[in-house]
Give the backbone structure.
Amino acid sequence: MNFTAIDFETANEKRSSPCSVGITVVENGQITGEHYFLIRPKEMRFVPMNIMIHGITPDQVEDADEFDIVFEKIRPYLENRLVIAHNASFDMSVLRNTLDLYQIPYPSFDYCCTMVMARHFYPYLENAKLNTVNAHLGYSFSHHQALADASACANVLLEIARELGTNDIKEIAKATGIGIGHVYPGGYTAAKSGGKSQVSCRKDRPLTFSPSAPFAASTPLSSSESISRAVPYNDLTGKRIVLTGPLKSMTRGEAIGYITDHGGTYLSSVSKKTNMLVTNVPNIDRLRPEQMSTKLRKAMSLISSGLPIQILTEDEFLRGGH
């Protein structure tokens, strides 16, 4: 089975603002190449939410190539191949909009969406997010890192193909009730769902990993059990804690439960009463105020006025501030 998996991360809300791309190449059912590129967006505007999701900051792409240069490097992995993405409508839109921005003709390739495929084939899962599906498949990866996401996307298709016993994408598409789209010079045809899907035989198998945590478990655990066993005990008694942005190892609800279980108090906003702010944004000292979330900007302001608020990464927080 031959195909290319692709994943973009963007700097802001515009689909023409890619700041990184991951490419995973599969030949004969095996990953034969993985390629990762940082991209300098034409408009160097990063919004806080996007930084919180992927961790890429403007200084990291300052000296990177713009998309027109990067595209020439990835074009061979797209042209006349099957291209897959998890939430393909997003990644194909980023590709088309950025090609349009640079007035570059579209390449020609077929594409399909592993998110729609997984939603149909694993309907018993809570959702079809990339980390949830791969947790079910026993595959652990660093979510929202473009190359890791591309390889995780490839894993979804390979596992479905293996279970269905076919490497023919048309047969897989028919069995999972999805459509195959096509991008071509001058336009594209969207991949539309259609038909009834088979359901995976994995339905009755327990999860190997917690979908919201990167820690492997020797036996199946609930999300809360996974978290409590994966990190050391953290005494948060009397601490008032604010979270900003998505976390990598747990959902926000699990994080709030973790705080209260360890004696702390969760606050929804930053104030003079706040003791800790937990964020996954790296190198916050390099961010301009407009690149910070409202909570982070408020915390930095209070710190500069003399208040002792700790700003911790998720990892530091789970390890007691060390």
